[in-house]
Write a structure and sequence with these properties.
Elements: H1 2-38, H2 41-53, H3 75-86, E1 91-96, E2 105-111, E3 114-123, E4 130-137, E5 143-150, E6 154-157, E7 160-161, E8 167-169, E9 188-196, E10 203-207, E11 210-212, E12 214-217, E13 220-223, H4 230-248, H5 254-260, H6 266-273, E14 284-297, E15 302-315, E16 318-333, E17 336-344
């Protein structure tokens, strides 16, 4: 009996020691696994997705992450855009080989099939853990918008006054200097807003304490400048553009061109000397979809507006659309007006 009792004592003691060693080993292994997991980049990225991106709490961390944003992006516009970009889409992360020199690991974060963010991680030399060192929207996410406005008007984007450095005087064509000598010359300016995530929630303008109308057309905002000559200027600009489009397809003559385009200009000389080499053979044509917008009055003698039209050419029963989209510049000519130049807008023809 004594031998059996001693056996059980030794047996249970061994089991107890084994259990203690096993539990201790499990704790040590768990700690090492936790340290190993913490030292991997994936948990850091997943934590960013769960706690910041899915919750829409990125804006408050924009400075910490060095996130590039337009100065006209407000918290409200940012959150609205982020919600639109991610709503109903699976947010996933995948490692990327493209990374800056000062980071150790890079990831792409996608919303559905679209790359939304590029995330950069840096490893702490002491703790061996990763932390977010930089976050940027993919370049495809950013949008740019243009605003045309007179130089005497104040413009706000999302309630924020446009910075003077974001306003640039329009580059005028070769216009006779006497038309630009007026002491009351009101310049036309182009405002370019870059790095926005979506269309501005608001674009407002005022001049002399008076609110001005703003119209949006294909991503271009025009602060409307109203003046008495608008209708007459628009009528002549439309006719000048139409006869120009006709002439370039060999459907008009210089006599018709001279009715609406000043013959004492470089623009007319270039038209007269052009050989119309690229005319398309056609049996008939029709000018359609003529619109005149973006009016500007520089002085009592100088004006401009944007003219768009389509010259529909009938080519053996098939219609080819020759699209026209230009700023037309006009001068006063007695009781009427004449075009003195036409310049491409640089915007897509809609």
């Amino acid at each position: 009996m004594k031998q059996r009792s001693l056996f059980y004592k030794i047996y249970f003691a061994a089991v107890a020691v084994f259990a203690v060693l096993l539990i201790t080993g499990l704790f040590i292994m768990h700690g090492r696994l936790a340290d190993y997991e913490a030292a991997q980049p994936e948990p850091t990225v997943n934590r960013l997705i769960e706690t910041k991106i899915k919750t829409g709490d990125i804006y408050s961390e924009r400075e910490e992450y060095s996130l590039k944003l337009s100065p006209y992006e407000t918290k409200e516009s940012f959150n609205s855009a982020l919600k639109e970009l991610t709503n109903g889409k699976e947010i996933t992360a995948a490692s990327s080989s493209v990374k800056p020199k000062d980071c150790d690991v890079a990831y792409n974060i996608k919303a559905g099939d679209t790359v939304l963010f590029n995330v950069y991680l840096k490893k702490n030399g002491k703790t061996k853990k990763y932390a977010v060192s930089g976050l940027e929207f993919d370049s495809s996410v950013y949008k740019s918008f243009k605003i045309t406005v007179s130089s005497d008007a104040e413009v706000k984007i999302n309630g924020i006054i446009v910075n003077p450095e974001d306003r640039a005087d329009e580059k005028l064509p070769n216009i006779k200097s006497d038309l630009l000598k007026s002491d009351k010359l009101i310049k036309k300016q182009i405002i370019t807003a870059n790095d926005l995530l979506n269309k501005p929630e608001s674009v407002t303008a005022s001049s002399g304490g008076k609110e001005l109308t703003v119209r949006e057309d294909g991503g271009v905002y025009n602060v409307v400048q109203s003046f008495d000559e608008m209708k007459a200027v628009g009528d002549i600009a439309g006719k000048a553009a139409s006869v120009y489009a006709e002439y370039m397809q060999n459907d008009s003559n210089l006599a018709s061109v001279k009715k609406y385009i000043d013959s004492d200009t470089d623009f007319y000389t270039n038209i007269r000397k052009s050989l119309v080499m690229f005319v398309l053979e056609h049996q008939s044509y029709a000018i359609k979809d003529l619109t005149v917008t973006d009016y500007h009055k520089y002085s009592d003698d100088l004006f401009s507006c944007r003219v768009r039209l389509v010259n529909a050419l009938n080519r053996n029963g098939a219609i080819y659309e020759d699209k026209f989209d230009k700023y037309v510049y006009l001068r006063r000519d007695g009781n009427t007006y004449k075009a003195i130049d036409m310049q491409n807008t640089g915007d897509s023809v809609k």
